[in-house]
Amino acid sequence: MLKKLFALAAGLALLRFLPALPPLPILLPLVGLAVGLGLMQREALALFCLGLSWGCVTAGQVLEQQLPRELDGRTFWLEGRVVGLPAQGSGVVRFELEDIRSRHAGIPPRLRLGWYDGPPLQAGERWRVAATLKRPHGLINPQSFDYEAWLLARRIGATGTVKAGERLESGSGAGLWRDRLRTRLAGLEAHGRAGAVTALVVGDGSGLSSRDWDILRDTGTVHLLVISGTHISILAGLLYFLVQGLARRGLWPRGLPWLPCACALALSGALGYGWLAGFEVPVQRACAMLAVVLLWRLRFRHLGVGLPILLALNLVLLVEPLASLQPGFWLSFGAVAVLTLVFSGRLGAWSWWHSLTRAQWTTTLGLLPLMVALGLPVAFSGPLANLLAVPWVGFAIVPLVLLGTLLLAVPLVGEAVLWLCGLQLHGLFLVLGWLAEQQPPWSPGGFSTGALLLAGAGILVLLLPAGLPMRPLGLAMLLPLCLPAPDTPDDGTARIWIFDVGQGLSVMVQTARHALLYDAGPRFGDFDTGERVVVPSLQALGIKRLDLMLLSHADLDHAGGAPAIMRAFGPLRTVSGEPERLPVALQAETCEAGESWAWDGVRLTLWRASAPVSSNQTSCVLIVEAGGERLLLTGDIDRQIEAELIASGVTLGARWLLLPHHGSRSSSSAAFLDGVGAAFGLVSRGRHNNFGHPHPDVLARARDAGMHLHDTALEGAIYLELGRFGKATGLRQTRRFWRDFENGSGQ
Questions:
Q1: By mean pLDDT, which of 109-118, 274-283, 646-655 is the weakest?
Q2: What residue numbers bound the domain in which 28 lies?
Q3: Rounded to whole angstroms, how far apart are CA atoms 540 and 485?
Q4: Segment 525-582, tens digit of pLDDT
Q5: The three-state (H, E, C) secondary structure of 445-490, written as one string
Q6: Of 461, 396, 474, 466, nearest in space to 428 by CA
Q7: Overall domain count for the chain
Q8: Does 517 share its domain with 649?
């Protein structure tokens, strides 16, 4: 039985690792093969094939519902109903629309939209809007959040921006009730923690600040403020043990069997809490797992603890095969598997304190290879933070916050209880913030698949019962994670990464023993690509420190991420063409034309205009030469500064040219392109940006100059090795079936 369930789960989960979906002519024989294997009594192989087929068919149907390419970037009038809880922050309302009606064919059934300076929206309302729609698209870097996988897992077929709209119908039903409850909770006096109270009641975390999320991430406690399996399990456990305790003390009615009642009450409470939280995918997963576990406890306990885990895993994947695209799916089932391994089959009873501490450190250790494989930061303060926070949130805050919500109908009573919850949450964040400062998270990267498998096997050995021999061998098997093999360029060569930061710029130049960052990525409102993209990508590439951060000028699309990078790497030196406009904390020096130095056989040279009159004209230009191959990084210089650069006598010839100002029409003059004579052009810009970069005239001039273009908006982060005269590679060339792929080379 377990073998068959495992085979089915493996087939369903394999979807996550496919570079492309098999076409229908292959899927049909695969289904036939499954039927044939079943008739031959090879049930495990048959179930594996059926699971894979079901996952591929489901994913293919969802992909077919995405916005067609020919409609990408166009504006449409459409009608739809607001689902979920709209989130408002930084002057933009973000919401999802379903039940779409439009005169145009091909509009997806579910959209995620943003409305800048838009009116307040409520769940359940029906709106008619004019929206510019885009195919699902995200930034692709050595390490960043996979937005496209997230959109597909939520079955969102397009994103977009609302230009205008009108409300057609008011909201109604459960969604509106939850929205009004959120509004009331958000207005509470709760020691500044009304946002956290709201997150725990209705699952809306938009009221938490970016600092709050940083603290939760750095201490590995995000799961405590996002309603998921932790909260569902805690509430169900409290209800279950309440009935069990009453039965043990003889306070439960004798004619009423306590076990079925305890299971029914636990499941009912979990479903009620899940409904209150909007019944999102993590909550659905937790409720499904809980239902299977309770059924196992009620009728099938004699079949062993592996059965409910596999049943729940298959149930979740059969209902939603795309759940495997989300890291939370792997972490939740991984945590359950680790705890099952640690606590099942042990002789004797452990104290509650022993059990709690063991659960924390074993979960952290057991999930380590999975966290590394998923590219997630590992919080070494997590065991201690969770040791304090899990019982605090689970047994003090969550019961009180739900009780206070129920008592809101009683004047002053509910508010008083929630005020007490806010006080506790304030204290919790103070403690977690202190822990986060003591031990920052580790962002691993650069480990091979073999190293991860070896480390996983070592952790499995360490988690085995203490009496088994050879357990110390597990520590030796963890060494690949502790001592990663150095991966640096050879002397005389340089690795270049043009990160995919949207409408902005950030380029990493790495030599054998040094690293330079040219520009830091944009910051727009609360979205800081320096913190969310550049820092984790540098860490994933094994960069421990920056010798120089060179900020071409002070505009936010080039220098916005600099403070976050300064906090993470503390560069030895910061230089800019416009230091007076940068934060004082950066201590930036002025870019001096003609400054030149060598790192590990690689020559780097700076240049800056003599009398710039605008911010863009102050851009510090960097020339990198390795093994006779040159790269020219130009910031946002315009035609006037290009002419001055040509006349300066600086040797301009380069094989690689970063098109000035993201390909703006005001730059990349024909004279400049001819003077550089680059074989390859690099464009860093955001897809469907409001500036029209790169301009068609610039693209035409580049083609006339014989230049082959690489574009981050089409190819993701771009990598090349300077000094080897090779080709550039875009990360989108690493195929994933959910990833929108267009080869932008050679425009």
A1: 274-283
A2: 2-64
A3: 13
A4: 778 999 999 999 998 888 989 999 999 999 999 999 999 999 989 889 999 999 999 9
A5: CCCCHHHHHHHHHHHHHHCCCCCCCCCCHHHHHCHHHHCCCCCCCC
A6: 396
A7: 3
A8: yes
